[in-house]
Amino acid sequence: MKIRRQSAILRLVRGQRIESQETLRAALAGEGFDVTQATLSRDLRELGLSKLSHPDGGGYYSPHPSENAVRPGLGQVVSALLVKVEGTGPLIVIRTAMGGAPAVAAALDQAGWKEIIGTLAGDDTLLVITRNTRGRRAVEARLASLSR
Fold it and tell me: How many domains does the chain have?
């Protein structure tokens, strides 16, 4: 639940100007997440989100990578967000829960699997490019074992 909630938070702050925690709480409630102010503050801190000043006045939340940000491990992300994996040749298409593709892509990139050349994430779909068909099969097998 936490990973899905945090994915929703990232999607919301990337997609619109969120000026306050209360605005963010309301947006999350609209997506089925009922969070306390304390939980939301903790999520913002863990995600490395900062409140920036807007040139026109006011502030808004923005994702900024932080060395101190807590990132969930690949196993947690895959087991929580993975829906379907399909591959052909050196390519893998991964379907995730809505808003989950960026989190899965980041976790795969961070894992540093040598078979993976790169990832490209949309909202709920992720393209993984491997070095060859053999590498694709190895990545698919690892993902299958992590999603159990």
Answer: 2
CA–CA dist 122, 102 (Å, integer): 7
> Is residue 121, in this structure, part of any structural domain at all?
yes
- Domain enclosing residue 53, as ranges: 2-63
Residue 38 and residue 40: Cα distance in Å, rounded?
5
Instruction: Determine the Cα–Cα distance for residues 14 and 36; give it in Å rounded to an integer.
Output: 21
Residue 109 forms beta bridges with which residues? none
The per-residue pLDDT string of the chain (148 residues; one tens digit each, 9 = 90 and over) reads 788 898 889 889 888 889 999 999 999 999 999 999 999 988 888 787 877 777 777 788 887 544 444 456 788 888 888 999 999 999 999 999 888 888 899 889 888 899 999 999 998 999 999 999 999 999 999 999 988 7
